[in-house]
Design a protein that fits this description.
heterodimer, A: 159 residues, alpha+beta, Ubiquitin-like (UB roll), DNA polymerase, domain 1, 5 helices, 5 strands, B: 781 residues, Aldehyde Oxidoreductase, domain 3, Aldehyde Oxidoreductase, domain 4, 3 domains, eight-stranded mixed beta sheet, five-stranded mixed beta sheet, globular
Chain lengths: 159, 781
């Protein structure tokens, strides 16, 4: 067992974990943050994407011990005090969610992109979400949602 | 008088989107119950083998292991249309990947560790892998006891002592005579491999067995009532003993229709003395253990006059059902009555065989049967057009169903069917049909255009029905209870729109209880076949009328005026011409109270229902009859660029036109079309199961089985939605959910011929297949 300290959505956490526990299991099974999904367990679908120190990672491939000392952000931290982020609102407005199972991972990948590049090109958006599989939407609306969010943020939105 | 629509037809955002973008939406994957056990499975490594012995002693000794089940004690036969399945393999295994042992333990790690210690001794048996061979084979039977299986009588016709689970015949006119005398003839064969639905949420079920043979289930299903019914029949207990909850579902596409993991989760929980048991398919099991889309071998013969009029069509469809055909038989049936394409064919002969093989089994997949048969038909139409020296669009126009024609099952084509030709014309115009593509920028690339028609009707029993309960809230809003499932299509949003329109209240005041629960939500057959908006919409209209009748009745007494002279508008009821006397729905929702305290009426609860009307079984020998509540027609046109050095296809544009009857919500409808087109691209370009010669499935993971990513979408897509109303449809609407996927491979295949001049008859059209044909041609010249 390993003692790890980390933050999740800004809150300090400390847990004892097995060496084999993944970050995904830690979030879903130990912290009840089930907004992060498991779609394949081998890092191929992106449903489990969260941010580690602001950059997207597939949490099924990250060991919980690797989160020690790092800041983790999940979909549950995206809305602040019940107020949807600009990115979340853009997903709704663009019709970018259908069954919704890929949506949390998709939003976290997009959040990671916008952290890095506030005004991304279409190619940069596509590249950023290329590792997130969606079987429902055909992606067009998702790309559009990220574009809308970027424009609204540039227009003076807070997030 | 036509009323201006306030909500129906508007681009209303889906109400549950907030739950989905915040992670609050809870799927079966996300649920847990106190004391819940987790399940792992031992799968068959062989395509066909006798189970000699199973030693579970070492597995049972693992700490935390609570239940180890084999098929031995589970003497049940299950299935929707054909009861041919077991809960776990019994005596024999029929495909590699079939579940043989299930272990429930305190943790998933314990269950998985225990599975590794199970010793199964197999005696390998000969397998039948090619359905064309299996169809003729009477020695190697996947189901030697087929003749004893229960199945839907009068609809499906399994052939005793064979591998044929169902043979659907269509016979119209005299094919032989018409073909023999036709001036131009074509014979062509095609193949579709099996593919997977790939819902992002794999199948998951939690079951909790209760005393007195009762149980609760939470399941990622498209079919709460069908699950309940089949469980009840299988286990011989009253229907109400099973309570089925369906929370948010992460995609289905047909793969979660019928029965899935529910019986297994239930028997595990029973064996665990009622501890709840969760069964979640791994992604590999989703491919290799749970059902897929059936493969199809097609042979198509077309005879036509030199003028381009088709005189005869014959198709032989051999479906690779895999090891079980409980749903597959219905695909073979539906694909037969649609199996000539949307064309007027006076002399038609179709044989559709659903054939058992030793492979992972098939089930419904979005537009079931139709993408597959239209891959053949719509490629053959292009080939025939070339033989005739005609433009493919013109050849189709000449043969498309028109008013006064009859379909191949004898149904009259009327103006109410919508306008297939208008769909064709719309995509042809949008893609600048007949005008060559702009030249590609690089010399080793070539471009081409192709188009294809599509059609489908809901494939369902003649008695398919659904019901809606509508309750008025204290604030004058309405709650709708249904048990069709919205697993992403957006139907609940559309039903809310219809309710808001009918009741004349704001859309924000209409709520649908998201979790289906058979204890509360009224009956719905299954959420399949693009039928829910049509049937559920009609039931909502009836339920709203029932609520308004109750509102009028109370208001009539309150206002002392005849009910028929009352107007219901904007959440209020008032006498015609006297809006100042209006009473709000809120004041009537629980009953009306006069100033002196006297009260009348009571809580407003309406109900509505709908049942398929006029459908008939098809004649077993000729296939004649009325199988379709309505048809939806459409067309796609594609423009592609092919890299002749790599075989890569770049999709430049896909234009889709569908006759939706009435677009109830353009935003959601366009979302469905774009999503379906890209899903169809998966079938066209990348997806297909690969088996070795032992029947082992070689690519059951995302590493080797690629579905479209954001990088793979067309440069451009266009959606054209026609509105020629459907008689009997809510606001004239017909279903459009499955259709966008159908015929995408056909349009791409036709464009590929246009680009390269090479005929491709096998899907998918991947780099390897294309490049090897380009090289073959280069070598041959």
């Amino acid at each position: 067992m390993h003692e790890i300290r980390f933050t999740v959505n800004g809150q300090a956490e400390s847990k004892r974990v097995e060496a084999t526990t993944t970050l995904l299991e830690l979030l879903r099974d130990r912290l009840a943050l089930t907004g992060t999904k498991e779609g394949c367990g081998i890092g191929e679908c992106g449903a489990c994407t969260v941010l580690m120190d602001g950059a997207p990672v597939t949490s099924c491939l990250v060991l919980a011990v690797e989160a020690d000392g790092h800041a983790i952000e999940t979909i549950e931290g995206e809305a602040v005090s019940g107020e949807l982020s600009i990115l979340q609102q853009a997903f709704i407005d663009a019709g970018a969610t259908q069954c919704g199972f890929c949506t949390p991972g998709m939003i976290m990948s997009a959040r990671g992109l916008l952290n890095r590049i506030p005004e991304p090109s279409t190619e940069e958006i596509v590249e950023a979400i290329a590792g997130n599989l969606c079987r429902c939407t055909g992606y067009e609306a998702i790309v559009e949602a990220v574009r809308i969010a970027s424009q609204r943020m540039a227009g003076g939105g807070v997030q | 008088m036509t009323r201006e629509l306030k909500v129906v037809g508007k681009p209303v955002a889906r109400a549950e989107a907030v739950d989905k973008v915040t992670g609050a939406a809870a799927y079966t994957h996300d649920l847990s119950l106190p004391g819940m056990l987790h399940t792992a499975l031992v799968l068959s490594p062989h395509a066909s083998a006798r189970i000699v012995s199973i030693d579970t002693a070492a597995a049972e000794a693992i700490p935390g292991v609570r239940v180890v089940l084999t098929g031995d004690g589970l003497c049940y036969q299950l299935g929707l249309y054909m009861q041919d399945k077991c809960i776990l393999a019994r005596g024999v295994v029929r495909y590699q990947g079939e579940a043989v042992v299930a272990i429930a333990a305190d943790t998933l790690d314990q269950a998985r560790a225990a599975c590794k210690l199970v010793q199964v001794e197999y005696e390998e048996l000969p397998s039948v892998l090619d359905p064309r061979i299996a169809k003729e084979d009477t020695t190697h039977l996947v189901h030697p006891d087929l003749h004893t299986y229960d199945h839907m009588q009068g609809v499906f016709f399994p052939k005793a002592h064979s591998n044929i689970a169902h043979h659907q015949k269509i016979r119209k006119g005299d094919f032989d005579q018409a073909f023999a005398s036709s001036e131009v003839q074509l014979t062509a064969s095609f193949y579709n491999p099996p593919v997977q639905h790939v819902p992002m949420e794999t199948h998951a079920t939690i079951a909790q067995a209760l005393p007195q043979q009762r149980a609760e289930l939470w399941t990622s299903s498209q079919s709460p009532y069908t699950v309940r019914h089949l469980m009840s029949v299988c286990f011989g207990v009253p229907h109400a003993n099973f309570r089925v909850h369906v929370p948010f579902v992460g995609g289905g596409f047909g793969g979660k229709a019928g029965l899935g993991l529910e019986p297994l989760a239930y028997v595990l929980s029973k064996a665990a003395n009622g501890r709840p048991v969760k069964v979640v398919a791994t992604r590999e099991q989703e491919f290799n253990t749970l059902p897929s889309r059936q493969g199809l071998h097609s042979t198509i013969e077309i005879g036509a006059g030199r003028d381009g009029k088709i005189t005869a069509l014959k198709s032989t469809y051999i479906w690779d059902a895999g090891a079980y055909a409980d749903y597959g038989v219905n695909i073979g049936r539906a694909a037969a009555y649609s199996g000539g394409g949307p064309y007027a064919i006076d002399n038609c002969w179709i044989d559709s065989y659903v054939v058992y093989t030793n492979k992972v089994f098939g089930t419904a997949y979005r537009g079931f049967g139709h993408l597959e048969v239209l891959w053949g038909i719509e490629r053959a139409m292009d080939q025939m057009a070339r033989k005739l020296g005609m433009d493919p669009a013109e050849f189709r126009r000449m043969n498309l169903l028109k008013e006064g024609d009859t379909t191949i099952t004898g149904e009259s084509f009327t103006s109410g069917h919508g306008k297939p030709q208008a769909c064709l014309d719309a995509v042809a115009e949008a893609i600048s049909w007949g005008i060559p593509s702009d030249p590609p920028l690089e010399p080793h690339k070539v471009r081409g255009k192709g188009l294809a028609m599509l059609h489908k009707a809901p494939a369902m029993p003649t008695y398919t029905s659904c019901a809606v309960v509508m309750k008025l809230d204290e604030d004058g809003g309405a709650d709708i209870l249904v048990s069709g499932v919205d697993y992403g299509q957006g139907t609940y949003t559309v039903l809310r729109q219809i309710a808001a329109e009918e009741l004349s209240i704001a859309i924000e005041k209409v709520h649908i209880t998201w979790e289906c629960d058979t204890a509360f939500s009224p009956y719905d057959w299954q959420t399949v076949a693009s039928r829910f908006a049509y049937m559920g919409g009609n039931a909502v209209i009836e339920a709203a009328a029932d609520c308004l009748k109750q509102i009028r009745s109370m208001a009539s007494q309150a206002l002392d005026i005849a009910p028929e002279k009352l107007i219901c508008e904007d959440g209020h009821v008032y006498p015609e011409g006297s809006p100042d006397r209006a009473i709000s729905y809120a004041k009537l929702a629980l009953g009306y109270t006069f100033e002196n305290g006297n009260s009348i009426g009571g809580p407003v609860v309406g109900h509505g229902r709908f049942i398929a009307k006029g459908l008939t079984h098809l004649d077993p020998e000729t296939g004649q009859g009325l199988p379709a509540q309505y048809w939806t027609y459409g067309a796609h046109a594609a423009e592609i660029e092919v890299d002749t050095q790599t075989g890569e296809i770049e999709v430049l544009n896909i234009v889709s036109a569908l006759d939706a009857g009435k677009v109830l919500n353009p935003k959601l409808c366009i979302g469905q079309v774009v999503g379906g087109v890209v899903q169809g691209l998966g079938s066209a370009l990348w997806e297909g199961f690969v088996f070795d010669d032992q029947g082992r499935f070689l690519n059951p993971a995302f590493v080797d089985y690629k579905i479209p990513t954001a990088k793979d979408i067309p440069h451009r897509t266009q959606q054209i939605l026609l509105e020629n109303p459907q008689p009997g449809g809510p606001y004239g609407a017909r279903g459009v959910a499955e259709h966008p996927m159908i015929s995408i491979p056909s349009a791409i295949g036709n464009a590929l011929y246009d680009a390269l001049g090479i005929e491709f008859t096998t899907l998918p059209l991947n780099y390897e297949r294309i490049l090897s044909r380009i090289r073959e041609r280069a070598d041959g010249s």
